[in-house]
Amino acid sequence: MKNIFCGLFATLSILSYSQVSDSVFVPEHPYFEGLEAQLWKNPVQQNKTLLKDYTAVTLDFSSHNLQVKRTQTAENTNDIGFQTKGYYHFSKNLKLFGSFDYDFIQEKNLGFTLYSGRSDEDFVMNPNYLFVPKASNWEIQKYRIKGGATYDFSNFTVGALVDYLNQSSFRKTDPRPEIKTADYTGKLFAGFTFGKHQLSAFAGYGRKTDNNDVMAVNELVNTPSNPENFIRFSNGYGRIVNFPSYFEFLYSTVLRNIGGGYRFQNDKLHFNLNYAYSKTMENIYTRSAYNQVYIDQDLEYMKYREIFHEVFGSLIYHSENAKILSDFGAKILTGDNYNIVEQGQNFRKTWDYYFANFTYLKQGISGKYYGLKLKSEVNDFRAQDLLGVSDKKVQTLDLGLQFQSELYKNNNQNLNAAIGVNHYFPLQADLAFTHVSSSSTFYDRVILPDHYYDSTSKTGVSAEISFSDRFMKNTSWKIFSKFGAVFAHQSDEVPNQYYRNPNVYFQTGITFFY
Amino acid sequence: MLFVIIGCRDDDFGNGNNTLQPVSFKVQTKYDESFENKPSSGVSVTLTNTSTGDVYTQTTDANGDANFANVIPGNYNILVSRTMNQADFLSTFGFPSPSQEVAFNGTQENATINANVNSTVVVLKSSRVGDLVIKQIYYAGSHATQGANLRDQFIEIFNNSNEVIYADGLYIAQLYGKTNTTVNATSQANGQFDWSKSLGMTMGSAANTDYVYADYVFRISGTGTQYPIQPGASIVIAQSAVNHTAPLLDNSGNPINVQNPALTIDLSNANFEAFLGDFRQSIGLTTFNTDIQNPAVQDLQIAFWGRVGYYNGNKDMILDTLGRDSFVIFRADNFDTFGDYSDPTVSVIGTNTSFYKQIPNSVIIDGVELQHYNPNSQRPKMLQGQIDASSINTDAAFNSQSVIRKVKTTLSNG
Prior knowledge:
Number of strands of chain B: 26
Low-confidence stretches of chain A: 1-22
Helix content of chain A: under 10%
Strand content of chain A: over 45%
Distance between the termini of chain A: 20 Å
Oligomer: heterodimer
Radius of gyration of chain A: 24 Å
Radius of gyration of chain B: 24 Å
Largest sheet of chain A: 18 strands, antiparallel, barrel
Strand content of chain B: 25-35%
Largest sheet of chain B: 7 strands, mixed
Number of helices of chain A: 3
Shape of chain B: globular
Mean pLDDT of chain B: 90
Mean pLDDT of chain A: 89
Structural class of chain A: mainly beta
Number of domains of chain A: 1
Number of domains of chain B: 2
Low-confidence stretches of chain B: 1-9
Order of helices and strands of chain B: EEEEEHEEEEEEHEEEEEEHEEEEEEEEE
Order of helices and strands of chain A: EHHEEEEEEEEEEEEEEEEEEHEEE
């Protein structure tokens, strides 16, 4: 098989002198995991990927201790994970790939959410969720199964992806919600290749349900006179409302997307560019008069819709001693809520997101790899709540740089290390808030601290080391550890009591490849 | 303030601009037919958002209209009230007031306000200023282990007149209603049961507007002049008229210890107690373990505990600690002729069906609407506005709090 990869930031003239390389084995170097990730974006564009067949089984442990964080993120998270994944040429035309993941996650000291979402994933959380101020520990178990396939019919290629996530989330002190999440999506792809070009199209559908069942509530303290334990409902970003169905309700979210892609490919170069339109519609269903919760239009309470336009692509280049992978993209997202009772919306979120990553990997005369990775990310975010009343604007720039090197290498063993640094620049962080409620708790303890977080410059450092050993012809194992820290830079706008200690991240694990 | 719609033409939320904006809303108020439906000017109108608790207040103009310029769309409880002195009453209606002050109230629950619904009509009815009023209801109880749990519940009834009133023959009713505001086929628009749909009910909407429904009714016995209540004095009706601050023995001889006596109360001097033992034994049931009788305190009569053969479940005078009861006091010579009905969710009468005594509003002397202390768990009103226009609640359950009425005046003529 011929190597067809190329890189984004390398010029085509440079690439034209590149040499074709052999197919690649994912375990050989962390870089190749980036190639594997491309499979999941548009597999028919990767029908000629040079990944060798492999199976990997990983057991890992990670821990996050966060002092520099948004409020609705746990202070400490421990995750024990198990993963098995693989890529297989089932026949000349049929390729299969898939993974199974299990995670057991323990979160400590997490308040202001009784919902499965966390604010480390977003500048603000979903506008509709239950919360109590009182922090507690959570226990989360996740299973995720993903699978994909492509099949070539002469110039036509078809592909499919399926993804199923099952998650249970428990809060360990009163009130104790049990949230059972089932999320499945399916996506179909078709591509037509003419010469070095390919056009493809895809469409997907998914449905996610979150059954929220507050298993135990001490109603004696669930009162306004006990504000730390009083269950409230966020409806927007700053608007707090009553929610009679607090002990049982469900979210049902339907995802639809459609898009198309273009690929250019020759012996030296792979370039793809895709566009996707996606819409998610989340409905919250409350209890019926007979105390049952089910999906029925009469029980709809609130809605939240997100529409996003997404452009993404990659450039991949491989030669015998130099490999480049670059991926890039943009996402333009608009989120709107809708209140069934009030017949209107009070919340809007807009989020423009741009990213570009570039990885260069060079193989020296000794056979050792040396790598350079550049990451950049730009966010332009705004959340408005007309009834809250809040208007939050954030523009950020994230830049990252990582060097990696194989410190030791022989035919069977490999010691790889990497160090990195990244910096978060708050280009703009504005918050306008008008108190319209007699309680300022949510503003004082969520909105304002999160604004401090988003307006604080932060620097992160990281170090990684891994050692792999092939102990049979097609079987090897790898142990790996990663360490990271994030330091906040003091600002006149942020009170001194914030961010006195850095965040600390740690991960270690072992992988068997066969 | 308006969102600029960009990049999105999906019409998932209906046509046009869905941005929630304040709307104008008009509450038209008028007195009831007893006062020739005159517009009620100068009355206070309060809108309370059932979802957020936001409150808007306006006073009506000469046409009886309260015009609210900026109201956030949603569901609201509307309360209209005015208290008239004799001069105001005379100038408004042209005839003298029957008392020094007359209170008028009107309510509407769960009223929708949005861009398509911009007005409503509320009718004010004169409130009866009773000679006897329910002054205090201690329903929350005290701490379950430190205090007396719910054993120390009591009701206090106050003589609001300048004359001696006899408690003999007074009925005390614990009312029944729906405990959530969900609207369905057997409910009214405010979420309360639509009693007109109960089995055997034939009186139409009057079943909802002219009556209340009780699951338990007590009666104070007496010859007619046996239990006087002096002007400005009260009687106390206890679940168990014992000293709850001291160690007790229950009916099985087991000790009941109170770890913190300050959380509860000595009810051994209560005027009446609800002892269910004799009644329960008469229907083949045992006496409730903590229904301790004090022989020195007069027992209440059990006037209604469900239809004969379909008795309701309480084993004592147990008040709902969450505040989902309402209470009325009344006098009636024909109590036994009052009907009883199952709630409208019952389509077939079975052995476990409960029945509720139908009490006419016309005989009610006073009533108190309680409410759940949790704003997420509000329930619809059981009482018409002229009996109790609003509601009251403690901060929590088992917290040693009671609800107490402020007595503004003591009438000279009773």
